[in-house]
Design brief:
Layout (H helix, E strand, L loop, with lengths): L2 H9 L4 H17 L2 H17 L5 H18 L2 H16 L6 H17 L3 H17 L4 E5 L6 E5 L2 H23 L1
Antiparallel strand pairs: 1-2
Helix pairs in contact: 1-2, 2-3, 2-4, 3-4, 4-5, 4-6, 5-6, 6-7, 7-8
């Protein structure tokens, strides 16, 4: 069973998470050079997001970011900017709770600006991303114990720390691309 089938059964075809899966499929089709399937998956994901009313702001932002990244890879930054614009509105009004998703939205926006030649704006956005990505490298997190209600410090797994470091390195590399152009 494919991930898309599992998400479809658990969340339904109207879920922003299902749209994110469609955008991931689009990225795979783009990489394989199957452009009609790429365009079909982009259309499906976009329609789901445009009709979406039940998903959380974080899920919507995640799906919008996935779609924007697929469109950037395809070479269509204008449509990517249109797709991520509502996620940017959510970000600016502090309605995205997950810091990783918020940072990813901003990073995708920086990639869109860079692909359109807005180097100074890209630098400004990347400065925020650097701070967010670096802050996410912190190796512990606070969690609330469900039994006692007290806050405890939990050490992150090696895998989580490595992912945070990769995200930070990715942001730095995009910054280098900006300065080289």
């Amino acid at each position: 069973m494919l991930l898309a089938d599992i998400i479809y059964k658990q969340r339904g075809a109207e879920s922003a998470i299902y749209a994110a899966v469609k955008f991931q499929e689009a990225r795979i089709h783009n990489g394989m050079g199957i452009f009609p399937k790429f365009l079909s998956a982009i259309d499906q994901g976009t329609k789901i997001l445009n009709q979406n009313k039940s998903s959380s702001n974080d899920e919507f932002a995640l799906a919008s970011t996935q779609g924007a990244l697929a469109l950037i890879e395809y070479g269509n930054p204008k449509q990517a900017a249109e797709l991520i614009s509502k996620a940017m509105d959510l970000l600016e009004s502090n309605k995205i709770e997950n810091l990783q998703i918020a940072s990813d939205v901003r990073f995708a926006w920086a990639q869109i600006l860079l692909s359109q030649g807005y180097y100074k704006k890209t630098q400004s956005v990347l400065q925020k991303v650097y701070g967010e990505k670096y802050a996410q490298i912190i190796t512990t997190t606070e969690i609330k114990d469900p039994k006692t209600g007290k806050i405890k410090i939990k050490k992150l797994s090696t895998k989580e720390i490595a992912q945070r470091k990769r995200n930070y390195a990715e942001a730095l590399n995009l910054g280098v691309d900006v300065f080289l152009q």
